[in-house]
Amino acid sequence: MTGWTIADMPPQHGRLAVVTGATGGLGFETAIALAAAGAEVVLASRNDSKGAEALEKIRAAHPAAQVRFEQLDLASLRSVAACADRLLAADRGIDLLVNNAAVMALPRRRETGDGFEQQFGTNYLGHFALTARLLPALRRGTRTRVVNVSSLAAWQGRIDLDDLQSERGYRPMRVYGNTKLAMLLFTLELQRRSDAGGWGLLSAAAHPGWARTDIIANVPAETGLEQGFVRLAELAARVLAQSAAAGAQHTLFAATSPTACGGGYYGPSGLFFSGPPVATRLPPRAKNAAVAAGLWEASERLTGVAFAGQEVPLAAT
Fold first, then answer.
1. Could you tell me the pLDDT band of residue 209, with boundaries at 50, 70 and 90?
2. Is 266 annotated in the active site?
3. Structural domains of the chain ordered from first start
């Protein structure tokens, strides 16, 4: 595994991949690498104009690339359902789903239109609902993989099943870490349930280490102190962090390497959280199967979507 790079990625011809948040940063680098390897790639993101720009860049670099854009706002359950319906209408299997999109450290607690705390609703619940709705197509895929993108911030996360919406206290980076821990719990629980139910999925997770992406620049800084923090973080990233393309190789390893395994977690091996992908340690809280099961059940209630394919009553928010 040591020394793996994108050049080692197996050919992806004939595979259909869906990548969320694919118009910039890690998601774009993941999408363009998969397209270059021959996969048909769906760029699922919320911004139509950025989608058009991303498609243009990929096609300019790889004229034979099979890529298209699907509008997806993970902060809206209605948008998630509509995107899933369009993908399911194609009546074909999905071989790879990369749950990558995220918002980070919003300085003030906000809620989505569905009444969820914004980071939890976007980073985790939206991906949970999308994966559940796409399960019929995922089960029809070949060597199907679901890859959830987490973060080093997951180590500071803590899941309180009685306060999933951070109503008792809101700390921007702690809540971001909570969502990334939730993605790891989701990864392991999805593998357990796939194994038990015969869904045929390989569920894995990855984190990019410290990579230069636009997620920090997109943090809405509302005060001078917050603006200063964003500028300082961007400067440090320019000096010390690896490129977005280098950060994406960990996702790509989880998505394509023959040696990646169900329940695996992959990240960088080198100094400053950079370097080739290796199997990396899970935060201890990610291994709590009881919390994972409780989070899964709560997520079905909150989103109104069950992995068995049926709708469930929406919980009050």
1. confident
2. no
3. 13-303 (3.40.50.720)
